[in-house]
Amino acid sequence: MNETAPIQSPAIEQPLSPWRLFWRRLRQRRIAMLGGVILVVLYLVALFAGFVAPYRYDHLDTNYSFHPPIWPKPQGFHLVVPRYEPGNGAFIYRLVPNGTKPLRFFIRGDRYKLFGFIPATIHLFGTRDPNYPVYLLGTDQFGRDVLSRLLYGSQISLSIGIIGILLSFTFGMIIGGISGYFSGWTDTVIMRLCELIMSIPALYLIISLRNTFPPGMSSARVYAMIVVILSFIGWASMARVIRGMTLSLREQQFVLAARALGQSHLKVIVRHILPNTFSYVIVAATLSVPYYILGEVVLSFLGVGIQEPNASWGNMLTAAQNTEYLQNYPWLLAPGAAIFVTVLAFNFLGDGLRDAADTKSL
Amino acid sequence: MWSYLFKRLLHMVPLLLGVSLLTFLLMALSPGNYYTALQQNPQISPDTIARLKAQFHLDQPWYVQYIYWLENVLRGNFGYSMAYHIPATSLIIARLWNTFLLSFFALIIAWGVAVPLGIWAAVKRGSWVDHGCSFIAFVGLSVPDVLLSLLALWFAAATGWFPVGGAESPLHDFMSPAQQIWDRVHHLILPAIVLASSDLAGIMRRMRSCLLDTLRAEYVTAARARGLGEGWVVWKHALRNAINPLLTIFGYSLAALLSGAFIVENIMAWPGLGRLTMEAFFAKDSYLVVDCVVMATGLLVAGNFIADLLLAWSDPRIRLK
User: Fold this and answer.
1) CA dihedral angle for residue B173, residue B179, residue B181, residue B187, rounded to 10 degrees
2) Mind telling me how many Å the CA of A203 is from chain B's nearest CA?
3) ipTM of the complex, rounded to two decimals
4) Do B289 and A207 touch (CB under 8 A)?
């Protein structure tokens, strides 16, 4: 607020800015705040995935395939990790009595790169002893820690949603703004194109787009490809709505004034028209992020997205498609639970944002 | 009414043409085709490959291929599946029918459950029924189809009540007609429920909010003031007007349904269009991919047309325009 004013009469209350008002309305919605907090935690954990994960995503331990979850137990003032031995038969493990190791924090372990460029070896927890693994969510068919892969996978699955939304909504807003502002044949061409894209069932379009990329790309290129594919589909619905809003906004006084002052078309669209659609865009973006996350999940699940040994929530679930695995090793479904929590949190937050942005229904 | 429907019908033609052109262009951009793999095989002479390519016009530029393809499709011939070595038409029709069956039953389940629940939640607004429904809706909106399909597989395998994937049992051909029908239905139930539950939440929420809007309207108050029973007021006055906005989301829900069917088919081994698309994709059978995409779009466009029809039937303002 205005802090330069030296004296302020306490009797006069400053009117709240629209953003402050919005924030206050949002704060009143417990569920929305809960969703927001969950998301902050999820993204923070994803950011520090290498540190939080006890192992690297490709850390193999072939003696421990399909190991059930190992949970540390309290013993005195310590948490201790029990030890299991491979028993007779396929993937049966026996508890070794009295064989425990204390769980330690901030220990050295696998090498990783924090934020992708700082080399580090410190991990949040572990036992230091490779004979005493800590598999909080069990292991997969190659004996890789599911929790570690889940955390590394969250870096891909969670960031694709945000980057995809940023890209497609930026394009959608600009193209929609241009379409509504200029109308005429520009509008007709753009809107027909939108209808075309929207009339193809999304996953069929995703697969035909995937077809245009060669198989066997590096993981960084696959990541970029998924973002491009999802954005190619996502901009259309945004552009349609923004176009509709622009049609009514461009007749408003302030837009006419900006044009009368001789501002360029682009400046009028970007500086004067589009900011007025922001409250809608933010709500729509929050509610659309899940679709982008699910898009990546489905692509990777079907084997045409992120490839092994890199982890993503989608390609981790591929193993669960085997009903025998699924019945005996249900912890393979952990990525599914992670997706569910993420999508639920986005829906909670998005719903709250929509209610908070809707100032008419007080 | 008829001129309106005719206009909608005409609108579909350029749309389908555009979709087929777009998918064809995407196919042309894709690196390699079915014969790229064959060329690696030393047992097949380059002459044979050149002959086969010429037979399917693969040596021509993509727009020439498109014209050939379009000409054939208009005659009801979807070409020849290079990977399956059978005419694509029979393959696609069978798969299309399966996808239609799955989506149709899912649609019936979703609307059959969602509409009454939505009405119930709106009438009992603020009660535990309402809160329970909105909780189910939130969960339903957030469970990904992938997870739900996997859970359904798990359920089928663990209980043995339902077959694990597929559309018919291996002994299907040896059954009596009644058994055959039951066999199909038995295989259909679980995928249809999975598909329906992803769609259910959205419809239920929409139904509730639409009915709440009309329940606040003055003509409803007027109906109550005249002493009509509450059931009559809701059924005859409020609900009739709440249905129209609901029908407009019919089209959207269909699009979501077809994408959901793609996932369910691939996980639960339901031999529909989505599964065929993936099979054709991995076999690099590009024409078949195009055919599938166009057919799926056709299904969606046809569904939207039916939605328009329903809307025109229920709302005179639209059909008289």
Assistant:
1) -80
2) 5
3) 0.84
4) yes
